[in-house]
């Protein structure tokens, strides 16, 4: 049983650097895993080298080679899209699955997205089931998991998250738990983690500052990034204890806003896991 620490590439979002620069920095900080964010087609800021997102029209094996050169692997793909818009999410997630398989990422992480105003709540579940059914037909062939994250209106509660992750009877439909989103949504993140741990495939290690929690808890369903792990309201020793009790193996993918926060998160989590710091990789 092994719990590892990785980093979501959002940690360089405000540095105006390309994906390759973020990968190099993650390795220098001592991470073993990164979680790339992918998009369709061509995107101006990424094309210009000012943003970390990766186009799924790029050659995936070049991405895999880039990670390998820096001693890194992909813990998963960040591929969020609206499950209630199958005309968008079905081809997008199917493409993300193929891309993930090519670069060696075991899971595609997503959430239900924003419910369109014209889609009644009672009909939304059927639409999501259709989307997931179409997507999981591909996921099962490629051996790539779909990880549903607590974010937006339904999955922000543990009950809703489990319901989405149970819409299709497939071994590849799992959960990517986000501690920070769960906390901001008003859930107990420890009880929520216990409830989903049998279906857990990946975890977003997101901490929330006390000020942020006081201002927004119960008013929002998530946030893009958190603070450094150990600086906020999440008890990481308790999170790790829950995972170890379940004999869970996987990656804690840190979601924070700066390289400095990423470095402190890695040090804090490694200390709790009893791991020595990894030497920086050239």
Characterise the protein shown here.
There is one protein chain. The protein is an alpha/beta fold and 282 residues long. It has one domain: Divalent-metal-dependent TIM barrel enzymes (TIM Barrel), CATH 3.20.20.150. 43% of the residues lie in helices and 15% in strands. It has twelve helices and eleven strands. The strands form two sheets. A nine-stranded parallel beta sheet has the order 5-2-1-11-10-9-8-7-6. It has a two-stranded parallel sheet with strand order 3-4. The longest helix has 22 residues. The two termini are 28 Å apart. The model has no long low-confidence stretch (mean pLDDT 96).
Biggest sheet, strands in spatial order? 5-2-1-11-10-9-8-7-6
Looking at CATH, the homologous superfamily is Divalent-metal-dependent TIM barrel enzymes
Judging from the principal axes of the Cα atoms, what is the shape? globular
If you average the pLDDT, what whole number results?
Answer: 96
Key features of this structure:
282 residues; alpha/beta; TIM Barrel; nine-stranded parallel sheet; two-stranded parallel sheet; 11 strands; globular
Summarize the topology.
Blueprint: E1 3-8, H1 19-29, E2 33-35, E3 38-39, H2 44-47, E4 54-55, H3 60-69, E5 73-74, E6 77-78, H4 86-103, E7 107-110, H5 121-142, E8 145-148, H6 152-155, H7 158-164, E9 173-178, H8 179-184, H9 189-196, E10 200-205, H10 210-216, H11 236-245, E11 250-254, H12 259-273
Briefly say what this structure is:
The protein is 43% helix and 15% strand. With 282 residues, the chain is an alpha/beta fold.
């Amino acid at each position: 049983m092994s719990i590892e620490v990785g980093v979501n590439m959002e940690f360089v979002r405000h540095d105006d650097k390309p994906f390759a620069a973020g990968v190099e920095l993650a390795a220098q900080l001592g991470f073993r895993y990164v979680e790339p964010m992918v998009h369709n087609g061509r995107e101006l800021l990424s094309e210009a080298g000012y943003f970390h997102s990766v186009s799924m029209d790029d050659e995936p094996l070049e991405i895999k080679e880039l990670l390998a050169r820096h001693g890194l692997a992909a813990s998963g793909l960040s591929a969020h899209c609206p499950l209630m818009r199958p005309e968008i999410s079905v081809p997008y997630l199917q493409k993300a699955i193929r891309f993930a398989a090519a670069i060696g990422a075991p899971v595609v992480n997503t959430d239900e997205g924003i419910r369109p105003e014209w889609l009644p709540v009672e009909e939304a579940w059927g639409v999501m089931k259709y989307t997931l059914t179409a997507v999981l037909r591909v996921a099962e062939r490629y051996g790539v998991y779909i990880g549903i994250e607590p974010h937006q209106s339904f999955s922000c509660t543990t009950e809703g998250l489990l319901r989405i992750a149970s819409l299709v009877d497939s071994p590849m439909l799992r959960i990517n738990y986000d501690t920070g989103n769960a906390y901001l949504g008003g859930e107990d993140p420890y009880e929520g983690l216990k409830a989903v741990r049998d279906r857990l495939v990946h975890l977003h290690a997101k901490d929330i500052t006390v000020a942020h929690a006081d201002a927004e808890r119960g008013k929002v369903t998530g946030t893009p990034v958190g603070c450094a792990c150990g600086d906020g309201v999440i008890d990481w020793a308790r999170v790790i204890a829950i995972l170890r009790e379940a004999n869970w193996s996987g990656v804690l993918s840190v979601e924070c806003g700066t390289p400095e926060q990423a470095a402190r998160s890695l040090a804090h989590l490694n200390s709790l896991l009893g791991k020595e710091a990894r030497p920086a990789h050239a």
